[in-house]
Structure formats: C-alpha cells, structure tokens
Amino acid sequence: MRALVSRIALGLLISGTGVAHSGITTPKFAYTDHTLANGLRVLVAEDHYAPVVSVAIVYNVGSRDERKGRTGFAHLFEHMMFKGSANVADGEHSRLIQNNGGRMNATTDQDRTLYYDTLPANQLDLVLFLEADRMRSLDISRENLDNQRNAVQEERRLRLDNQPYGRTFEALQSLAYENSYKHLPIGSMEDLNAASVEDVAQFFKTYYAPNNAVMAIVGDVDTKACLARVREYFENIPSQARPPSVDMSEPPQAAERRQTVEDPLARLTRLDVAYKIPDARSPDLEPLQVLSLALGGGRSSRLYQSLVRDRQVAAQTGTAVGETRGPGLFQVFIAVTPGKPVSDVEEALSAQLEAVKTGELAAWELDKARNAVRRGFIGSMGSSFDRAVLLAEYTAFLGKPDKIFTQLDEIAAVTAADVQRVARQYLRGESRTVVVTVPKAAPKSDGGEGGA
Amino acid sequence: MLRTVAFVIALTAAQTAPPPTKTPQPKGKAPVSNEILRVKLPRPAEADLPNGLHLIVLEDRRLPQISFEIIIPGAGGYFDAPDRLGVAAFTASMMREGTTSRTSQQIAEQIDSMAAGLSASTGASSWSASISGSSLTEHFDRLLALTADVLLHPTFPQEELDRYKPRTRAGLVQQRTSPQFLANELYARILFGPHPGSRVAPTLESLDKASRDALVAWHRERYVPDHAAIAIAGDISLAEARSRLESSLSGWKKTGVPKAVVENPTDLAGARIAMVARPNSVQTSLFVGTQSINRTSPDHPAFVVANRVIGGGSSARLYNNLREQKGYTYGAYSGLSAGLYRGSWQATTDVRTEVTSPAIDEILGEIQRLRSEPVPDAELQEAKRAMVASFALSLESPETVINYYITRWQYGLAADYWDKYPERLMAVTAGEVQAIAKKYLDPSRLQLVAVGDAKIADTLKSRGTVEIYDTEGKRISLP
C-alpha cells in the first residue's frame, strides 16, 4: 500500500545483483518459467532452507499509464485490491495473511504495481487462493472507493504535504519530464477526488488481466505440485485485450530547466539536480551505476569527501540512478550547510562532475562498485521475498530474469574509460533539471538556518 | 487531578458515542491450514573470553557473508551527564574519524571498497553503545582488523571534530522538521521526566560544548570489554570466531569496572496533555500512551498479546477502526517497548487536522474497550497465532535469529526462553489481556501528545489543561 515517491529505492534494490568475478563463487538459484494458457507468466524457485514461501505478482501498470485528470489512480486502485473480492471480504486478505504468521503489502511506482506475500510454507494454498480471487473478481463499491480515497489522501499528506521537500519531489519530476513520468505515483488531491467507481472497474478489466502479470513463487515448495495448484487457481481467469501502450519517448532537452521552490516546512536549503539517462535496458546503466557509487555512495564518495567533509558546504549528499522503463534520471541531491550560499554548493558540485569527465576513477572505486553489487546480490539470495521480487520484476521489465545473474559480470566489465564516457555523455549542463528548495520564513531561534 | 477528570470525561464521551462501524464479516472461504508450523530456532554457540567479552555465534554457511554486533553496556546515552547530552553519541560517531594508524578518509575508503558496513552508535537513552559491521566472508578478516582499530585506537582528531560539528548540527536542525520526531521527543519527555528515558536527541548547545577531551575520556572509561558481548552470524564457526577475536582484540583488556546500573523512572503522577504547535501542518501526529513494564516482568507475554490485539499491525483494532472504517489516516498502530528500565506503550497515528478530535476519541475508545471487554476468543486466537506462526519467517535470516539471543543475553533470560516463548504466548487468556489493560492503560496514567497546527489547541483544551510547546521544545502560550 506504499506509493513510492520515485523509482530510486527500487532501482537501488535491483542494482544489487550479479555473479562472480575474480574466481569467487557467487550463489545462483534455479527456477522454472511457465506461461499459463491465459497468458499468466509463472516463475517458481524452490528453496528448502526455511519453511517459508514468498509470492510476488507484478502487474504491468503504473502511474505512467495514467491519463490526464486521473493522476494517482494506479496507486489508489492498488488500495482497492485489499477491499474484497467474490470469496474474500473487505480486509480479509490482510487478516488471513497476518493471522497465519505472514506479511503482505503492495507498492506502486511509475512502471509497475507489485503485490507480495511471505508466509509459513504450509499456507501456500491460502495465498494462491487470495491472489487468484482478487485477480478474477474484485469487489468494487463506492463505499470502499471513498474509504480508500481518504486513506490515500492521508498517505499523500503523511509523505509529502506534511513533510519538508514534499513539493521538491513533485517539482523535479514535473520539470524534468514531458511524458507521463511528469507526475508522481501518489497523484494530486483533485485527481484523487475525481476518481469514480467506473474508472476502477475499467482499470481492473484493462490492466489486472492474467496476461498483463508475472507471478514469482520462491521458497519451500515442490515446483511440480506448486504449478499444479497455480493452474487450478489461476488458469481459468480470462485473459483480456492487450492494454494500450504508452509513448514514453522524450524530446531531447536543449537547455537547463531550473525552478526555486519555497518550502515552509524545510529548514535547510536543498539542491536537486537531475540528468536524463536512457531506460533500464541500456548497457550504459552499468557504468552509470558505477559513477553514482563513486560520486555519492557512502562516506568515501567524492561528494561526501569534498562537499561535506572538506569544504563543509553541504550537510548531506546523495546520488541515485533511476532504472525505469522509459528514460530515467541520474539524480544528485545535496542538503546545504546552514549559512552557506547555494552557489558555493553548485560550484563545488560542478568541480566534482568536471573531475569525473576529465579524469578516471581509481581502481578502488571500481572495486567498490563491484563489491557493492555483489554484496547486494548475495544479501538478496538469503530472502525468498527478495528473490521473488527480482524474478517477477526483471521478467516483467525485460521479458526474462537473466539479468539477475549477469549483472555482476556487466558491472565487473565496466572500465574507468566507460565511466568517463557516460559522465561526459549524460551529465551535461543543457540536459539537466535543477530544483533549489529554500526554507520559507525560517524560525527566529538559532541563527544560521535559511541557507542562501 | 483536574486533568485526570477531564480525561475521564473524554473517555465517557467516546463510550457513549454510537457503536463502532461494523467490521466486515470474513467470508471464510479461503483455504487455511490449521496447523501452526512449530519451528525451533537454531541455538547459537556461546563462550566467554578471558577479558569478559561474551561471544555468541550463529553459524550459517548458506551464503558467503558475516555480520556482527559488539554491545558495550555503560557506553550509551543513558549515562550522559544531564548537562552534556550527546557525548556518548558523539564519541561513537567520531570513532570512525581517525585512529593511530588510519585517517578518516582511509577508514571510509577501506570499508566502502569492500562494500562492507561498519558503524558505531548509541541511542540517546540507550544503556549500551554498539559497533556493528558486515561483509562478504572473503573480506571479514580485513573488516575485523579495521573494527579493532576503530574500537581500540581512535584518536578523535580535533580537526575532524571541528568538521563533525557543523554537519551534525545541520542534522539536528533538520530533524526538527519531522512531525513524528517532534511527537516522539515530547512524548518521551512527558513520559519519563528527568529520567534518561526521556532523551531522544542531543541539543545544539550540548553539541557546541562537546570537547575532544570529553570524547577521549568517554571512550577510555566506558569502551571496556568487562560486560560486553559480541554476536556474530553467518559464514563462521565459534572456534573460528574465537581465534580471530583473540588475536584481533587482544589489546582489549579487562578493567574491573562494575556493571553500569540502570534505574526505573518514577511513576507517572497523572494524565497529561501536551502539544507542539507546528506551523503549516496539514496533519496532526498523535501519541497516546503510558509507561509500560520491564522486559523481565511476568506481565510481558500478556502485554505483547494485548498490544497485538489493539494495534500490532494492519489486522488490529486501531488500523481497522481509524483507517478502514473511518478513513482518518493512512495508518494507526501501537507499540510496546520494554527494557532494562520501564519502557513505554503508545498508540500512534497521523490524521488530517480536521479529524483530530474524533481520532483521539476513537483511540481512547479502543483503549477503553480493551479494558472493559474481554477480547472475543476468535480474535484472541488469531492474534496469538499471528505471532507464533510468524516465527517461521525469521528462520530465513540468521541476523534476525541472533537478535533473539542478544535479547536473551541482555536481559538474563533463561537459556530455553525462546523455545518456550510460543507456548507462553499461546497460554495468554482473554482475562489476562484485560487485566493488563486495566492495570497499565488506566485513563489516569494516559499521556496525550499531539503535533499539529496551533488550532488543534482548542479541541485539546476540552479534554483538560494543555501544555503547549513550539517546534524548538520551548513552552509557549498561544494568543
């Protein structure tokens, strides 16, 4: 029931994959891959280490598919999926999963909606039944819609409207894009108010079809028996016409875009800079990830060492590479030290970006990226949930999940020259979007806040 | 007394309100396995090293990674002098900023190039400091060498302290923008008064005052192995861990200092209402709760079940009422903390400003319902089953399992505590849950904290005397 503000967090999760380099064994796992008669793609990976099973279902729909006037709808719809279906009462899904020792939730971003459950393995039937029943027969009522509209509007207040920098995220996205990445998955209050029961019914029919979904099951199951159960529960759910595709192409950006946001809830000035990069299928994503880790990963990173520790113009720095199905963003964010002008920070940032364009990364910085990806991969291998999500998302995005296993090789193959090339190619002044957030009416006490 | 009376009046109002909207009846068609998977947690191997350090190792060879945590009692923020808050936390943070053989930058590069983790930290009210780390197996020896250096030979360079202060200051300023931080801070203050349990974060003044000498002394006197433990989980055996620690930490000598003592807070004098007037708020962040129990209290299992019933997740009463029925919030939960000193229990939620008053009524109503009515059997069984069955999930993660055993060590619980814990939960009766609610969640002990727009003061005042604070934590009066 979370609406990711952007794809960043997930992108970082996904980037934690790969296989061995330098002769060290990295675990792999086997899986089967079937497509049911109705088009539902099902991947199963057995793991008998713990008596646990995780199920992840990715529906190929996100805020990118929303039409004008209905922003936030994909996420609002996600909430409706917990309000009951033909054989499951309102709230019964969550109660049955939790009261049998499980965890469940869902999340919507620009590109996909993900539902997930982890349970003791003896409850496999329960979770398959619950997921199939709502894929087949969602119970759509005005009362439930109004209730969840309230919940989602409170979610928006909680995450954006009542927090500092909430408007910053919206402004950056809106300024950077022409396509439907222009708005955040949480949507606007007005559009949420406009959503109707008919919208819900149509959206369900169009996007929540078995042929628009990928399901991954990982854990203490017998693959053959599990697949038989899956067929029993899911295979007679009718498929639907293929949903309309969305044009995600972006016109080339010819000049810098810049906006200042006055934020009455913020105390520190914040600088956000975003550069357009290709979609997640591009081989340039790997060198961009290495670049991101060198610039913004941890206390050894160039931005931290230079802007925070050495020059003390920033209190916090970070970078992220969006892994999106349409054109992504390479993002830099910096919290400005109280009393320091934002121009000093921009200048210091420019110097660091110039350095990665004109010079090469050190060997240890390449090691850092390789090890980070490797650790991420190994860490996720311990969790049936992580593996189920990786299998379902990669399959939904790329058509097959192989990249889970090949990504480390791809990262390991990145050279310092590759990183320099992508820095030159993508971190260009004219293709960047800058949002400067300044605190509005900083409090009187403790001088210094307010920044530039 | 007046405040208490006002609270009781508010409660009465909630009780006489129309009965709560219906909870939809389950259809009961989904196939549930009635068997609860009884799992036995793997037991770690434990040993005591000659310097007093207690070693807990959970060997798990599945993946080539190892994580550890060193827990150092007596080095936590609990023990900060009241006029020097934060020295414990600053000391922990500064340990990575330079040693006799490594600079701050070298430490950061060496850790990050392995993509390892290494951090030292302590909570503002915590009994202990903690140094935790993790790495791939192939890097573990290097990580351990770095850890030993940071633990035993930090130099707290003045130059690094001068750099540390402005960025920490910015963080302290920044966190005051979070309504949840402000609510938590005021709630702890109301709940624990002068007791260190009230500490949530250092102040800007105490940061300014912190000197290199104070950090050096804190480290010298308090980072001792006498009562400490190290818990290690992953691709390593007890014997391997022991031999590595005996060589890498050979310089960590026993000092003979006695174990640091922790006191309970004084009992609450009565109900209180306090708020932070936070300009531009569009929601009210609410905490309603009271002091709870010590971790070793015999009431613990029943309190855990009571908490689960009222607010432990999205199948519990608060969530169902305030979100699913009323649509006031994105979430409403309760939490129980119980430690070496009496902890806290609280219901928390964030609601849009306009429904602040009815939301408080609903929370108080749910507390009252737990006190006045036994939990129906089906609901009680579901709550207990939820907790017991979920143990199976923790088996996936050695880090989760070893945390159970850290708890066992920390509170001196019996060796078979976790083996018997599921039975203990399952044995809790509706009468015991109700008795817990009656004993601890009495209206005369409830504390209400709200963070939101100044206009909520009016609705709070109808419930009793309201203490009002600004976002800096200063007492104010509204015009």
Describe this structure in words.
The complex is a heterodimer of chains A (452) and B (479). By secondary structure, chain A is α+β, with helices and mostly antiparallel strands. Chain A has 2 domains: 2-234, Metalloenzyme, LuxS/M16 peptidase-like (Cytochrome Bc1 Complex, Chain A, domain 1, 2-Layer Sandwich), CATH 3.30.830; 257-439, 2-Layer Sandwich (Cytochrome Bc1 Complex, Chain A, domain 1). Chain A has helices spanning 8-14, 73-80, 92-99, 124-136, 142-161, 166-176, 189-194, 197-207, 223-234, 285-296, 302-310, 342-358, 363-381, 384-398, 403-412, 416-426, and strands spanning 2-3, 32-35, 41-46, 52-59, 103-108, 113-120, 213-219, 257-263, 270-277, 314-321, 328-336, 432-439. In chain A, helix 10 packs across helix 16 (416-426), helix 11 (302-310) runs antiparallel to helix 12 (342-358) and helix 13 (363-381) packs antiparallel against helix 15. Chain B has helices at 2-16, 87-94, 104-113, 140-152, 158-175, 179-192, 204-209, 212-222, 238-248, 300-311, 317-325, 356-372, 377-389, 391-394, 398-410, 417-426, 430-440, 456-461; strands at 45-48, 54-59, 65-73, 117-121, 128-136, 229-234, 272-277, 283-291, 329-337, 344-352, 447-452, 466-469, 475-476. In chain B, the strands form 2 sheets. Chain B has a 7-stranded mixed beta sheet with strand order 9-10-8-11-7-12-13, sandwiched between helices. In chain B, strands 1-2-6-3-5-4 form a 6-stranded mixed beta sheet, with helices on both faces. In chain B, strand 9 and strand 10 (344-352) form a beta hairpin. Mean pLDDT of chain B is 94; it is low at 1-21. The chains are: A alpha+beta (452), B alpha+beta (479). At the A-B interface, helix 3, strand 6, helix 4, helix 5 and helix 11 of A face helix 3, helix 5, helix 11, strand 10 and helix 13 of B.
